Design the sequence.
């Protein structure tokens, strides 16, 4: 703890003495030196913070006391869904594990889960101090806020590095496990642009098209031991708790995919998000109202790289394990769609899109997303990546019918703000946000 406090003091001393340190150094060189000093110090502080909070939550618990008490797992959900085609009525499922992967439209799905859980007073397992479960450390139950052995929850849904043996201790045996994947090429493009400033090895990239430069010789800018390198190679496989540096033909990869197929009852696909939600609605016995959504955490189109066939091929090869994972679950996804019924799926997707369009006309000023700087209410401003402001958000209409005001606000609220609304303490996330905003405001990145 003393080391942490000293590091923070070191940063503020440098900030206060910076004019004297830089005396006599002018122009771009001065900015580069200033940025490097601050970034090294601030990165050091964040690593210490993450390590400190992570170590504080890693505890061992006797295995006999770790089982979820099923008797407290089912709060009442006061409606029964009548299904079509003469199927018997069903009750909505409330015990859910959502493995939230990175850059896969998972924030939009998270909003759906938050709304359903809040509406039905479900018990969430939340992290403490952050918006994730101490990622990239493997998940342990002790990372859950106020966790005690034997505690039982309805929903686990924040970012984590998946560890089923630990997650299963939080949920009753009938919990439904779901996750979402995305075409690894587009996921890599998104992840690269969002995280590369947080991966020191990529700071050596100098071309205007840094993505293409990286893929032309990825081993020059990547090391599996390097800080945050996992963001840039087989990120999906890493998120699921596996070694992202294996060869794609390694038997461990095949075994890992097989284990995931047995673990997860539904794997959604970001490219077919509406179809995925219809399958989710069917699996969980939810209503169409439960899965309405607005796209959250989307980038402006100008920040998305246009991928040539050559760049796409290189990205797919570089992320070959993720590609193998995606291909497998793409096949199983369409098997489920065919089992659901192609025509029935088309009808339900059209209904979902019609209902979403109605809500958009009711809730959203102008009917579309806008740049973060143009969002009037800070509550609706999304979290931005380091060094840029590329994530879009929404303005809520001011003259909304009172009966829609609450649902509109919840559907438009980004992840960080919604977590705070649900009572999650986000002190570390907010501290990093302050540091990030300072770096942006002073043009250091």
Sequence:
């Amino acid at each position: 703890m003393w080391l942490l406090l000293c590091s923070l003091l070191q940063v503020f001393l440098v900030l206060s003495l910076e004019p004297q340190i830089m005396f006599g150094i002018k122009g771009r060189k001065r900015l580069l030196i200033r940025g490097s000093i601050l970034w090294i110090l601030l990165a050091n502080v964040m690593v210490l913070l993450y390590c400190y909070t992570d170590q504080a939550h890693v505890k061992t618990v006797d295995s006999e006391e770790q089982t979820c008490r099923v008797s407290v797992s089912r709060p009442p959900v006061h409606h029964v869904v009548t299904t079509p085609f003469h199927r018997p009525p069903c009750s909505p499922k409330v015990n859910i594990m959502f493995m939230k992967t990175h850059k896969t439209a998972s924030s939009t799905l998270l909003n759906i889960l938050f709304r359903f859980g809040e509406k039905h007073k479900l018990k969430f397992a939340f992290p403490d101090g952050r918006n994730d479960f101490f990622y990239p450390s493997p998940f342990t139950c002790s990372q859950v806020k106020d966790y005690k052995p034997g505690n039982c929850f309805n929903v686990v849904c924040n970012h984590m590095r998946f560890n089923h043996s630990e997650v299963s201790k939080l949920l009753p045996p009938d919990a439904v496990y779901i996750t979402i994947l995305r075409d690894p090429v587009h996921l890599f493009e998104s992840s690269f642009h969002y995280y590369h400033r947080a991966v020191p090895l990529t700071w050596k990239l100098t071309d205007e098209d840094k993505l293409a430069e990286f893929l032309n010789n990825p081993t020059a800018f990547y090391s599996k031991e390097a800080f945050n390198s996992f963001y840039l190679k087989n990120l999906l496989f890493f998120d699921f708790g596996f070694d992202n540096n294996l060869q794609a033909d390694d038997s461990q990869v095949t075994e890992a995919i097989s284990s995931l197929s047995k673990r997860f009852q539904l794997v959604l696909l970001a490219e077919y998000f509406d179809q995925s939600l219809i399958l989710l609605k069917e699996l969980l016995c939810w209503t169409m109202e439960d899965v309405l959504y607005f796209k959250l955490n989307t980038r402006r189109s100008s920040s998305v790289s246009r991928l040539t066939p050559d760049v796409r091929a290189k990205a797919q090869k570089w992320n070959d394990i993720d590609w193998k994972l995606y291909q497998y679950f793409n096949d199983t996804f369409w098997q489920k769609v065919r089992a659901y019924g192609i025509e029935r799926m088309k009808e339900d997707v059209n209904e979902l899109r019609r209902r979403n369009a109605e809500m958009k006309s009711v809730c959203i000023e102008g009917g579309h997303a806008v740049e973060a700087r143009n969002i009037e209410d800070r509550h609706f401003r999304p979290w931005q990546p380091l060094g840029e402001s590329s994530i879009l958000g929404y303005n809520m209409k001011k003259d909304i019918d009172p009966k829609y005001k609450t649902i509109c606000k919840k559907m438009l609220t980004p992840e960080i703000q919604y977590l705070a609304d649900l009572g999650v303490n986000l002190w570390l996330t907010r501290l990093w946000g302050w540091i990030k905003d300072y770096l942006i405001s002073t043009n250091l990145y």
